[in-house]
Design brief:
The complex is a heterodimer of chains A (201) and B (457). With 201 residues, chain A is mostly helical. Helices cover 52% and strands 6% of the residues of chain A. Chain A is built from 10 helices and 3 strands; from the N terminus they run E-E-H-H-H-E-H-H-H-H-H-H-H. Chain B has a domain of 59 residues. The longest helix of chain B has 17 residues. Chain B is globular, with a radius of gyration of 28 Å. Classes of the chains: A mainly alpha (201), B alpha+beta (457).
Chain lengths: 201, 457
């Protein structure tokens, strides 16, 4: 039987007990407020525990001030909550400490993460801070995909990695900054070497 | 300005260099060219002529170069990799395919140390003498074409498959009988992108290098390497001493002698054991047996044949789970005895199944002689033959072979029923509820601890 031919039954909506959905209010460090459903919050272990510990009722949620998340800005938090709302009710992968299995980025997540790398960096931080396992996996996968097909030289440019020489120079500079006497000794040693002295001491 | 080591990508790109850590790879330098380069002289001559006719013959060459030079580079987005904490970087590196890890490790010392700590989940590891087993090399047609078409050389193949890509490394040793052993080894390395790279490592032969690399491979893969395949001559102790290898689920092997097969089985006691005995069989198949007779003498050859037959039969006396023997010498009588023993409850409950093909013709009546069996049905399918590469010769039509299926009744427990398949030169016997899937083409698909596997008879 097709859907169009199915008999229409009038349902008295008032007779069905509807469980009222609770929306928590969160505030980013730049004072932007977000309303997030209870089910979506379950994706974040940190927020879920926080909310459970606070024991808010639906009235408290409206009357009390929004829960402040100090470490995350509004732009990043918006992305995080968008992701949580889309994936609410989904099973959370269990982290058993083994090597991560193959992670595939769903279409929605790919669109959501079509952002600049600065924001992606913040998103990874936020996912880690709020302990959202699946968001952390997909965002890390996105960064891992950046490396695909790139040579070490290209990787050095993309990931802003210093070369061995630069690294050593930086180390030396840091050491010198720590101990100015070492630099003096080194200069003295170089000078003596130039003069042809065999022994330093 | 001289280039630093880091600025020479070929030094860093090598998987071996990465895996070995300390293994120094010398990149082959171009040989000095003493002959005249006529093509260049021609080109010079052409250019000289052009100088006089620039107005008539198109643009001067310099302009073209300038056009190519000013192709704008795409701006790459930067990611603050080093700002991330170690635990997050670890997650990202775990998500990277092996090739990306290698490239990341090649960027700097710090990254190299960081990447080296992380292990790779490996599905299959192989170390094989290509003179003994080539089935795994066929996975990489480009590499197969590159290295196997050359005669007079000895090849070893190492490869590992992680969860996204394969890394295949082939070691080539040139045999020069009049110049002694070649001190260097050519290494052909197939990248996941499908490119073949070649490097030369001096002062080490191909076998030693393959063993060294195998150790390095195992040092970087997780402990539960799912499958391993070892196909080398004799019983190479240095390979079997690798502790991680012992944890592999399937040990596929190919040996010259049956003793080594026994030794390997007793050493690993694998859940499933897949052995190609083609090399052993060659010694006793006409006309190749003539070579063996000439080598060992007729008397020794006959003793050897008798011993090998006894040892092959003895494989069925072991505490088996899954056993696959290709081109073996197991006699039909022994198979019949085993099934009879099973029906009388003399075989361990752990036994799953075995599939054995022999190089002799198998008579169905001899296999089922005096066994409590019931005929189930039969199918016809093409005989398995290795396709010939040359297309010039006419291919003969592939003959059809019969595959017959029986049920074997246990005399101890009436509810226990085993399965027996006989197809061409192959016999498959399975315990109750353990029978693998076999189609009319002789392809056996079975599930073991390592996952779903296939083998062709």
């Amino acid at each position: 039987m097709s859907v169009e031919n199915a008999p229409v039954v009038d349902v008295d909506e008032a007779a069905i007990p509807v469980e009222k959905k609770m929306y928590y209010r969160f505030e980013s460090n730049d004072k932007k407020e977000f309303r997030v459903s209870e089910l979506a919050i379950q994706q974040s272990e940190t927020l879920n525990r926080l909310v459970e510990a606070m024991g808010y009722t639906s009235e408290d949620v409206e009357n009390k001030p929004a829960i402040a998340i100090e470490n995350i800005d509004g732009k990043t938090l918006k992305l995080v909550f968008q992701w949580c709302e889309h994936h609410k009710g989904e099973a959370i992968p269990v982290d058993d400490g083994s090597v991560p299995k193959i992670v595939e980025i769903p279409e929605f997540d790919a669109k959501l993460m079509d952002i600049d790398n600065g924001l992606l960096f913040k998103l990874i931080w936020a996912a880690d801070y709020l302990n959202i396992v699946q968001l952390l996996n997909v965002s890390c996968k996105k960064v891992a995909n950046m490396a695909q097909g790139k040579t070490p030289a290209q990787l050095r440019r993309v990931y802003l990695l210093p070369s061995d020489e630069e690294d050593e120079a930086a180390k030396r500079a840091a050491q010198e900054a720590q101990d100015p006497r070492a630099r003096e000794v080194e200069e003295e040693f170089e000078e003596r070497k130039r003069q042809g002295g065999n022994s330093f001491f | 300005m001289s280039l630093s080591k880091q600025e020479r990508p070929e030094d860093r790109l090598s998987a071996l260099n990465f895996l070995g850590g300390h293994l120094k790879i010398a990149v082959s330098k171009p040989r000095p060219q003493f002959r005249f380069n006529f093509s260049k002289r021609k080109m010079d001559f052409g250019l000289n002529v052009k100088q006089f006719f620039t107005s008539r013959i198109g643009k001067p060459k310099e302009e073209k170069i300038v056009e190519e030079f000013f192709v704008e580079e795409e701006e790459e987005e930067k990611f603050q990799w080093l700002e991330l904490p170690d635990n997050l970087r670890e997650i990202i590196v775990h998500q990277m395919p092996l090739q990306s890890r290698i490239n990341l490790a090649a960027t700097s010392k710090g990254e190299r140390e960081f990447v080296k700590q992380m292990k790779v989940e490996c599905k299959l590891f192989a170390i094989e003498d290509l003179g003994r087993r080539t089935t795994n090399l066929l996975r990489y047609p480009d590499l197969h074409w590159k290295v196997f078409a050359r005669s007079g050389k000895r090849f070893f193949l190492n490869f590992m498959c992680d969860w996204q890509h394969d890394i295949a490394v082939c070691f080539c040793e040139e045999r020069r009988p009049f110049y002694g052993v070649c001190p260097s080894t050519k290494v052909y390395w197939l990248t996941p992108a499908g490119n073949i790279k070649k490097t030369i490592i001096p002062n080490i032969n191909a076998y030693d290098l393959a063993v060294v690399t195998a150790r390095h491979f195992f040092s970087m893969i997780t402990e539960d390497c799912k499958r391993a395949s070892v196909a080398l001559s004799g019983w190479p102790e240095e390979i079997f001493e690798i502790p991680e290898l012992q944890k592999s689920y399937v040990i596929g092997s190919s040996y010259d002698d049956v003793e080594s097969i026994h030794k390997t089985y007793d050493f690993f006691e694998p859940y499933s054991f897949d052995v190609y005995m083609h090399k052993t069989a060659m010694k006793y198949i006409w006309p190749f047996s003539l070579l063996s007779v000439a080598r060992y003498g007729l008397r020794d050859w006959m003793v050897m044949r008798r011993n090998d037959r006894i040892l092959c039969d003895a494989m069925l006396d072991k505490d088996l789970r899954i056993l696959i023997l290709h081109d073996s010498f197991v006699s039909v009588d022994k198979m019949n005895q085993f099934i009879d023993k099973w029906s009388n409850g003399g075989v361990s409950d752990k036994f799953c199944w075995w599939a054995i093909s022999t190089h002799c013709h198998v008579e169905v009546e001899e296999v089922i002689d005096q066994l409590p069996i019931t005929y189930v049905g039969e199918k016809y399918g093409p005989k398995y033959t290795v396709p010939k590469e040359s297309k010039s010769k006419k291919q003969k039509p592939i003959p059809l072979v019969r595959m017959v299926k029986y049920k074997v009744q246990s005399l101890v427990n009436r509810e226990t029923i085993g399965t027996l398949y006989i197809r061409d030169k192959m016999v498959l016997f399975a315990n109750a509820g353990q029978c693998p899937k076999i189609d009319e083409f002789g392809l056996i698909t079975y599930t073991s601890r390592s996952g779903v596997n296939e083998t062709q008879f």
